[in-house]
Give the backbone structure.
Amino acid sequence: MSIGHLAGALTVARTELRRSWRKVTDRLSQLLGLGFGLFVFAAGAAVVSYLLVTTSPDLSGFAVDSGVRSAVVFQWLFVVAIITQRVVTVNPRPDAPDHLLTTVRPATAVAGLVLAETGRILAYAGLPLLVVTSALAYTTGSVATLPLVALALALLFVSGVTVAHVLGLTIKLAVARIPVLARNRTVLGTLAVVVLFGGYTVVQASGGGVSGLGFVPVGWVADLAALALPVAVSPGHAAGGLATTGLLIAGGLPLATRIATAFWFGDSVTPEIETQEATVERVGTDPLASGLGLLGRLPLGSGQSGRIARRTVLLARRAPAKLSYLLLPFIIAGSVVLQAVVGALTVPTAVFAPGLALALPWIAGAAFTLNPLGDEGSVLPLTLTSPVAGQTYIRGLVRPGITIGGLCLPVVPALALATGFRPSDAVLVTVVAAAGIPAAAMLATGLGMVFPRTDTVQVSRGREAIPPTASAMVLYSVAVGVVVGLPIAAGLEPALVQTVASGLVGVLLAFPFAYVGGPLAGVADALGSLGGSIAGLDTAVVQWGGLVVPIAVGVLAGLLSARFAARYVERYTL
């Protein structure tokens, strides 16, 4: 790599990082997320460093064996997977490619993207790793540990990012050239993410398969990092790790450049596929039914509210990116299912049915009614000026979630019985879910009106969506937890709910008032007495009260929320 080529790559990387920083600081939620991530890494590094310095452990009996090398390989594969996903969805090309690619060679741009992704990794892990390495060097008295660990980490990260760019750009090129992949890219991408993170969770939880990766030369950089430490290492493995990661970088960059050149400058079938997807073949006299295809068979009712319901489903079908915030629960569910398949569960199967009973109402509201105004997009003025009444509009919005949730409801008792629940308990979780689905859908309408989002958010480069606001998501999730989660817990485990409620009121809520003291001490005493009263209640009272009261309050609150949303949309002005 020439000096000019390296300087150009550094300039591209610096520009990419600067723009990433601007995007993070433009939104408070992203800035808080970054701060929380840095705090977690820094706190962990501080604890480890403190223990190293204060205890000065004897490392003479430690050896860099196959288990250590396997762990390094496993984390390297995790880096490859994460960066591959980012290349496919977020950074398949540099910012302003039309301008940049006319001033620098593709090889320079690819090298800059690799350096930028490495810089993003170091932004999180760089300082904590430096602190721990410094503490290790201080404890052992080996100054050479610092440069050796830095070299090993640089080789590990850069090689992983390089391989990820080869894989990610290959996927993007395949989607751009193969019509079948382009048509099914959303479904295939979702399945890939679920399998990827689910498999990672399975392997991490079970430990099986990880210890067998020690033969992969990438993990041998662990020997390179530990060469100056008083531990047993293999110089041959260290040299092999150095050579392997170096070859991955030296060979991966030219390969990634060739693939990127074909992807950036070649023709793509994606625009043609998107045009075909947006074109509806008229079937009969109902264009909505034609656009929905098989989804048009959903029993969404008739009249104006039925047409609004079908239109809501059609908008979601044509813009699946706006439902991307629903991906996380499915990733978690996929991880749990995969763990169940391999028999490496860390969570008992008894949570499957209650978890599904809680998830169905949450999805019923979040999918269609948590951001009604934002989901209208550019046609919001037409919706507001239409002669449709507010109640009819809201009724049409909640129908898809209620209908789809109701169609999925029979899975709850089947799963409950399959996982060892008594028939009475299976009926209990089913009834709670059945009541929670319409309650959650109606609750979401009011929260979505109070906390709307009408501006787009970039899901991935070139793709934008209008998801609900963080405030609406948090409040809605808490509400569903109280309305659905609490009755399920009270019905199945009333003693546990009683203990938790007693401690929450009598200890956690009372502590701040007791700590301040003075006139607030009476509040602490009252809360403590209330906590004691909760602990003294009969278990049957807790069970039936915790089962009936939240559901009744949730249904009533849902009706009031839907009524408020109907009036709000009638009076809403741009």
The radius of gyration is 28 Å. The first strand starts at residue 457 and ends at 460. The chain has 25 helices and two strands.
